[in-house]
Specification:
about 70 residues; 5 helices; globular
Length: about 70
């Protein structure tokens, strides 16, 4: 999470890969932080949902559903 915060502080704006990778790894704290800070479209939410489901990260799956995941 500290690295992600540093990236935002330094002006990074593209976080699709980070959100999907965090979902794959089950890092709900990073996902929540990023979704508070950056705008993402439903495709990113769906991709994160799929990756977290594949890895069995139930809390991330539930969070992505709450955020509108449909796939």
């Amino acid at each position: 999470l500290n690295v992600v915060k540093l990236m935002i502080d330094k002006g990074a704006t593209r976080f699709k890969s980070a959100i999907v990778t965090a979902a794959w790894g089950g890092h709900l704290d990073i996902i929540k932080f990023l979704l508070e800070k950056v705008d993402v479209d439903l495709n990113v939410i769906n991709e994160a949902f799929i990756e977290s489901a594949r890895k069995g990260h139930k809390s991330v799956v539930e969070f992505m559903i709450d955020k509108g995941a449909t796939d």
